[in-house]
Write a structure and sequence with these properties.
- It contains 4 helices and no strands.
- The chain is mainly α.
- The chain has one domain.
- The N and C termini lie close together (10 Å).
């Protein structure tokens, strides 16, 4: 196993904290509503909705954002744990 040095660990922790903080903002209704208003007319954000034939509504957008945020936060926490165990 490769040993992770301190600098790499600090960079991982700082970047992970930033990512978790940004994705945590999606749980704030005001933040999510503002993002929806800014992004609702872009075709790219509805890509997965069309693939899975999900109705393109504000409520589904908010649910998708919350689910994605939970997924990313869990992955980042697991990455931190795995990296710190390897240390």
């Amino acid at each position: 196993m490769a040993r992770v040095n301190t600098n790499d660990m600090v960079i991982l922790l700082v970047s992970s904290i930033i990512v978790v903080a940004l994705f945590s903002l999606n749980f704030n209704r005001k933040w999510t509503n503002r993002n929806y208003e800014l992004l609702k007319d872009r075709k790219g954000i509805w890509f997965w909705f069309r693939i899975f034939k999900i109705e393109e509504t504000k409520e589904n957008f908010i649910k998708f954002n919350h689910g994605l945020s939970v997924f990313v936060i869990v992955i980042m926490i697991v990455a931190i744990i795995i990296t710190s165990v390897r240390q």
